[in-house]
Design brief:
The chain is α/β, with parallel strands linked by helices. It is built from nine helices and ten strands. The strands form two sheets. Strands 1-3-2-4-5-6 form a six-stranded mixed beta sheet, with helices on both faces. InterPro entries: AB_hydrolase_fold (IPR029058), DUF3089 (IPR021440).
């Protein structure tokens, strides 16, 4: 091959490589979902072994252990003897291609602890003892496309969550009031826990509030459980999905199983975490956004970081500055879609969530 032909061949290879990168970047979300999709039907008989909640390893956080929920934020105090508990359900941290995650997968457990419990459950350490179970979380595609297989995987994850909650009631609760909190998949299975176990019976009287953030939470799905309409209302639900002004499309959750075809269009719940009301009034400020870096350094809250208003069931958010994100987090953001703040919904309102959980807990205790 002549030198000129070699140069043209090299240029063609570089051009092809650049084109592949550009196509991959443009369709990153679709590629991620395609790679994660299981290639076999869901089969409960072949599911990973069920968790044993007597084993401390089946928990991401418990009050008697030093764990990710104890992560500290600069200038923020941790409660020393809280009278309320929080039962926290983490979002998806499993990127494999099976229908449900194994509980002995060290990579998944580390992602849960550092990428979820540390940055989300820690928001409740100012009001509560933190209980955060691991569970056989469902494959992410179960939440983006309704299917019988996906519904089965979600059902298995929800069964674990209910088993963990019942273990908590039997061994740890001792009649204490509690907060239910979750994000993303955790909110999805948390809604089932709320509807099937907590709301129908006497446990509802001990529910301080449920923070079911980043999931497809609808008024129809909540049934008789009310949406929170003020900062100190108790026994109610806070939910929102945060999107920026530039958001147009991206990865979104769907209900699985879906509602009946002849059912009215579901109405998404949106409670503004700056006002704690479900109306469409705009608000600015925020007590402090909190973002951890990949090295685990103690973060400092950034006050007055957001402006937010509920609009047709979506929390429309504008930021006053850039969000610090490492390389992998930026890949996730791009896959979710420009302006999709799903991954940082707790971080944007971390101090607001912390203060509100403490306020609702105090209000609940004062009424007893």
């Amino acid at each position: 091959m002549t030198r000129r032909r070699l140069q043209w061949a090299l240029l063609a290879f570089v051009a092809l490589l650049v084109a592949c990168v550009m196509v991959g970047w443009a369709f990153l979300g679709d590629i991620v979902l395609a790679m994660a999709a299981p290639g076999v039907p869901f089969d409960r008989a072949n599911a990973p072994p069920a968790p044993n909640y007597d084993d401390p390893a089946a928990w991401s956080a418990r009050p008697e252990t030093a764990d990710a929920a104890d992560a500290e934020v600069e200038g923020v105090a941790v409660a020393t003897a809280p009278e309320v508990d929080v039962f926290y359900l983490h979002p998806t941290s499993f990127l494999g291609d099976s229908w449900n995650a194994r509980l002995d997968d060290a990579t998944v457990n580390e992602a849960t602890d550092l990428g979820s419990t540390r940055i989300q459950a820690s928001a409740f350490s100012g009001c509560c003892r933190v209980f955060a179970p691991r569970y056989r979380q469902a494959n992410m595609t179960a939440f983006t496309r309704a299917s019988a297989d996906g519904a089965g995987a979600i059902g298995l994850a929800g069964d674990d969550v209910i088993a963990a909650f019942r273990h908590y009631l039997e061994h740890d609760n001792q009649g204490r009031p509690f907060i239910l909190a979750g994000h993303s998949q955790g909110s999805f299975v948390g809604l089932r826990l709320l509807r099937e176990v907590i709301a129908p019976g006497p446990l509802r009287a001990r529910l301080v509030a449920a923070y079911l953030i980043g999931g497809p939470i609808t008024l129809e799905g909540l049934g008789e459980v009310p949406v929170c309409g003020s900062a100190e209302q108790t026994g109610c639900v806070v939910a929102f999905n945060a999107r920026g002004p530039e958001y147009s499309e991206g990865i979104e959750f769907v209900e699985n199983p879906p509602p009946p075809r002849d059912a009215p269009a579901p109405r998404r719940v949106c409670v503004n975490p700056l006002t704690w009301r479900a109306d469409e009034a705009a608000a600015s400020g925020g007590l402090g956004a909190v973002f951890w870096d990949s090295h685990g350094a103690r973060p400092r809250p950034q006050a007055d970081f957001v402006r937010a208003r509920c609009e047709a069931g979506t929390l429309r958010v504008e930021l006053s500055g850039p969000v610090p994100r490492d390389f992998m987090s930026r890949l996730l953001d791009h896959a979710l879609g420009a302006g999709n703040y799903h991954a940082i919904e707790y971080g944007l309102f971390w101090m607001d969530l912390r203060a509100n959980a403490a306020a609702r807990a105090a209000a609940f205790l004062a009424r007893q």
